[in-house]
Amino acid sequence: xxxxxxxxxxxxxxxxxxxxxxxxxxxxxxxxxxxxxxxxxxxxxxxxxxxxxxxxxxxxxxxxxxxxxxxxxxxxxxxxxxxxxxxxxxxxxxxxxxxxxxxxxxxxxxxxxxxxxxxxxxxxxxxxxxxxxxxxxxxxxxxxxxxxxxxxxxxxxxxxxxxxxxxxxxxxxxxxxxxxxxxxxxxxxxxxxxxxxxxxxxxxxxxxxxxxxxxxxxxxxxxxxxxxxxxxxxxxxxxxxxxxxxxxxxxxxxxxxxxxxxxxxxxxxxxxxxxxxxxxxxxxxxx
Length: 287
Fold this sequence. Notes:
Largest sheet: 10 strands, mixed
Shape: globular
Number of helices: 9
Structural class: alpha/beta
Oligomer: single chain
Number of strands: 12
């Protein structure tokens, strides 16, 4: 699996790199840490075009500062790779952040890892801007990191019976290892809560359909070696998913990028976006 992880010098950027090392992936990883020096946005947001002469000196000095910072980050990232025993390369490029990240992750089998927040108002990867652009336009899966890295113990897999949900189940079965390593170096089974949320409707048969969807996914995951909990709820999908994650110490939420339709769905731009914004834990949006 090709993994592109965004680094910007913030704690969220460093957490993103460390999360890559903690992901229980079954397939070999090719990791690329990417730092983007965004010098293009310096001019337009700060001054109208053409740039007044008295601002050009400031802009050039700021570009030099960012280039020097990029060199420092590149060295620190290589050292972090070494300490985490990650194999990969560190790349620094100049350009707009989101398009540059998307350029480096072109395939559906790739994964982009971004921190949910960054450094400050000018030099950051922040939720609602870079992360949202990446989520909306990436053809690859996206992991938004919101907390310190950890060995995964409990995953929440939100499904709705769509093809995207089935891909999420397939990812859990084929691309991840259903075992977690304890501090004692002993392995134990990774817990997965399979959750389907049905909006308030007047059709009882839809509720039964939801339970069947959860049961089918749960049986497949249990057969793959996971410890499974099957959960069906009625309510607003995003709110129920976020609440379950908060109340059950979930380490990672896994969701598909698109869903069924207007009645019962987990889809980008609505439910998925709200979960990424308000979840207490990191979120993996799969394509």
